[in-house]
Amino acid sequence: MFALGLLFLVLSPGGACGAAGVDPGPDQAVFRAKVVDDRKQLFDGTLSYRTSLTAVVDDSATYRISLTAEAASRTTAPVPPGVETRQFQVGGVEGAALSSTNRSVQVELLADNKTKQVIAEPGDTVNWQWTVSASEPGDYELVLVLTTYQGDSDRALDTLTPPITIDLTVSDSWSHRIDSMQTFLITLGSVAAALMAVFAFRAPLVDFIRNRRDSRRQQHRDQEDERDGYRDGFL
After folding, report:
1. In this model, does residue 124 exceed pLDDT 90?
2. What would the 3-class secondary structure string for the chain be?
3. To 5 degrees, how large is the angle CA 87–CA 88–CA 90?
4. What does the pLDDT look like over 58-80, one tens digit per residue?
């Protein structure tokens, strides 16, 4: 009976919370209420960005985005060609990050920019700019992530979901072609030198093997001749 009563206590809602220690308590409840209230205070924002970027190998290109808190009295400006927009909840501290998983691509935030910026009221606009470069030509992908934070903390009130993917196209340059050709010629020269060394070592080795083979054959003939002479003398 005791075991059955204990099982009932653990499986009951109150008992389960107490046993697992997941009762949020008053402080946790206040914290959650604060997060919910702060999310209600956010207002609509518009992110302006481009979905593609072109660059030349070993040279950098600049990628820019802007985030604007919409104002009811503000007339919506026409979107420039090639620029996309996306709605996002803003208000307070805004963070943006641009990255690439390819090691050939380097992304750096411009020195006069900050990763986190502030939108205080409708009508405010914040901007980010990055320099993007690649050491090899090709097609790559960049990933853009935006986050609205709760004050100065790292708690997210809203996150851009899914993140935005930017197509990066990097074309080759004459300097890179020349460097690649020089590297190829140096590699080819090293291979040729190694082959010449192998052949140079192979020639005396072949002569040595051939001489030993001829010597063994001669010894074999001499031994045969001696046996034939012994037979003739015996007979």
Report:
1. yes
2. CHHHHHHHHHHCHHHHHHHHCCCCHHHHHHHHHHHHHHHHCCEEEEEEEECEEEEECCCCEEEEEEEEECCCCCCCCCCCCCEEEEEEEECEEEEEEEECCCCCEEEEECCCCCCEEEECCCCCEEEEEEEEEECCCEEEEEEEEEEEECCCCCCEEEECCCCEEEEEEEECCHHHHHHHHHHHHHHHHHHHHHHHHHHHHHHHHHHHHHHHHHHHHHHHHHHHHHHHHHHHHHC
3. 140
4. 889 999 999 999 887 666 666 77
